[in-house]
Amino acid sequence: MGAGFLAFVAILAVIYFAVRGRAERLREQMQDLLRRANERSASNRLPTESMIKCPTCGTYSAPGQQRACDRADCPYR
Fold first, then answer.
1. Cα dist from 31 to 5, 38, 45, 50, whole Å
2. DSSP string of 28-60?
3. Which of 3, 12, 59, 74 has its CB surrounded by the most CB atoms within 10 Å?
4. Which residues contact 66 (CB under 8 A, 6 or more apart)?
5. Angstrom distance (rounded) from CA 69 to CA 46
6. pLDDT for residue 50
7. Where do the domains of the chain lie?
8. How far apart are CA 17 and CA 23, in angstroms?
């Protein structure tokens, strides 16, 4: 085993650890970005309301926003 072979192995080791370190940093950055995106989306959610089904026509609407349909027996007339 000559000095050239040992130098080649050393260069390969340096390249391996450099690539591995860069991949680790990229993975950590992606996890941080995903965590931030999830926090932002959780704070941007709109409040929800339960929907009410019309007993006559079967359509759903938010409470207090029911509108009369064209049926004569509509309870929201």
1. 39, 11, 22, 35
2. HHHHHHHHHHHHHHHHTPPPP---EE-TTT--E
3. 74
4. 52, 54, 76
5. 28
6. 85
7. 3-45, 49-77
8. 10
Q: Which residue has the tokens 């591995």?
A: 20
Tokens at 22, concatenated: 């860069």
Q: Which tokens in the block code for residue 13?
A: 């080791």
* Calpha distance 19→26 (Å, rounded): 11
DSSP letter at 6 equals H
Q: What is the pTM of this model?
A: 0.45
Give the Cα separation of 67 and 77 in Å (integer). Answer: 8
* Paired residues of 53 in beta bridges: 60
Determine the Cα–Cα distance for residues 52 and 59; give it in Å rounded to an integer.
8
DSSP state of 47: P
Pick left, alpha or beta for residue 58 (phi over 0 → left; psi -120 to 50 → alpha; otherwise beta).
Answer: left
- The tokens describing 55, both together, are 């007993």
Return the bridge partners of 60, or none: 53
